[in-house]
Amino acid sequence: MNSLKNLSLKRRFLILQVLLIVAALAITGYGLILLFERHVERRINAELDTYLTQIAARVGFDEDGTPHLAARIADPRFEKIFSGLYWLIYNETSDKSSRSRSLWDSQMQLPADVPELGVIHIHTTSGPQNSSLLVHERRLVFNGVNGEQIARLAVAIDLVELKKAVARFANEVTLALIALGSILLLAGWIQVTIGLRPLSFVRDSIANVRNGKATRVDSDLPHEVSPLAEEVNYLLEAQEITIQRAKSRADNLAHGFKTPLTALISDIRRLRDKGEVDIANDIEAISLVFRRQIERELTTSRIRHTKTMANIKILPIINQIVATLQRTPDGEGKTIEVDCNEDIVAQIDKDDLAEILGNLLENSLKHAADQAKITVVAREDIAYFKIEDNGKGISGAQLEMAQERGVRLDQSISGSGLGLAIVNDVLDIYGQKLELGKSSMGGLKASFQLRSLAI
């Protein structure tokens, strides 16, 4: 049942067409064969009646009452032995008979009933070599040498001839119907393909929306399909409204936490000024965890409700992040090398890409001795990202732990340990995964990939 539900519309239409065409051609073929058989029967009946008339015109009688034909009938089959066409004349008055040469030494049995004078009687009987004969019989009165003679004239044809004719016609009709069926199936396939093409346009248009190439589904379609496109557009509009509301709520939440966090930072500074350094450090660590937790939840909420992919140029985003990080305490005095062609693009939301690169570069600068590097290479339709540093790095056993939520391998460096987990959350939306390894610079290497399409 599920396989039938999952069957494509094109296959459903084609299967239905095949069944209907086969059924229609089978009924047509049967009807044509039946009509032909009846036509052949009528023609044979007419032919046998003609032969009866010719025999009646040529019949004569000897002195002993034996019937004979004064002249031969033109059809040569009467002269060919067991040809399948026969005649018989039986004189009831003298009990004498005569038959065509085609019967040779065989007999053609006439029925026991006696037909009325002048009426053509049609029946079947056995013939030579166990054949079945269609017989046309007529009983007539003749004037012979010895007076009035009553004779039964019979002409018969082997029914095999009828069956052979019908069989030949059936073979020819079958071949013709097969050819016709092939043409109809080809025409049906073309019709279904062209008829369902608008659905392909809808699919491609929806794919363009999903890939960020368009914002709406093209509704310039046949009126049977355009309502579907319009409904999809209504859904997209409703989704955009929902997304904007979710973004607004997230922004309001972020703004609502900004003021208390700012006040808390001021309190921490005052505590340090009063000499309460330990308490200030504890509160600062807690507030940092609090801030990063909020950032993670806001990021997760945003990427859960949005996935506006477009072909984004990568280099400007990298330069913006690098310029920002070099003004932070972790970036001061450290070099960030950028190796990225300005034409390379990635199919991703701009904010999502900034979230990924910002977290990875920030993490790299925290652990770098004095240098970090970001490399982006595009091959075919994939953009490969690599962020490295010349820090101490981490061991193989710690690589998987580094991506777990809240894990900080280096407790001497401030942070909440959520940066890499956030990166994995964002990459997961795009079906990708962050990979960590040993860098050739000596520190940690973080790498991932994204789809890259030409602008």
Task: Describe the protein in words.
The protein has 455 residues and is an alpha+beta fold. It folds into 3 domains: 151 residues, Beta-Lactamase (2-Layer Sandwich); 100 residues; 147 residues, Heat Shock Protein 90. It is built from 10 helices and 14 strands. Helix 2 runs antiparallel to helix 3. About 3% of the residues have low confidence.
Task: Put the structure in a nutshell.
With 455 residues, this protein is α+β, with helices and mostly antiparallel strands.
Helical content band:
40-55%
* Contiguous helical run count: 10
CATH topology of the largest domain: Beta-Lactamase
Record the strand order, biggest sheet: 4-3-7-6-5
What's the helix and strand layout?
Elements (H helix, E strand, L loop, with lengths): L1 H4 L3 H50 E3 L5 E3 L15 E7 L4 E4 L20 E7 L5 E13 L2 E12 H37 L1 H14 L15 H48 L3 H29 L4 E4 H12 L9 E6 L4 E4 L1 H18 L3 E9 L2 E8 L6 H7 L16 H11 L5 E4 L5 E8 L4
Defining key terms:
single chain, alpha+beta, Beta-Lactamase, Heat Shock Protein 90, 3 domains
